Amino acid sequence: MRQLGRRGFVAGAAGVAAGVVSGVTAAGDAVAVPLRRTGAPAGTGAHHVARRELRGMWVATVANLDWPSKPGLTPAAQRAELIAYLDEAVARRLNTVILQVRPTADALWPSPYEPWAQYLTGVQGKDPGWDPLGTAVTEAHRRGLELHAWFNPYRVANHTDPSRLAATHPARLHPDWVLPYGGKLYYNPGIPEVRRFVQDAMLDAVRRYDIDAVHWDDYFYPYPVAGQVFDDDATYAKYGAGFPDKAAWRRDNTDKLVRETAERIKKIKKNVQFGISPFGVWRNAATDPLGSDTRAGVQTYDDLYADTRGWVRKGWIDYVCPQIYWNIGFAAADYAKLLPWWSEAVRGTGVDLFVGEALYKAGDPAQPAAWQDPAELSRHLDLAAGYDQVRGHVYFSGKDVVTDRIGAMDRVVGDHYRNRVRPPR
Question: What is the CATH number of domain 2-416?
Answer without folding.
Answer: 3.20.20.80
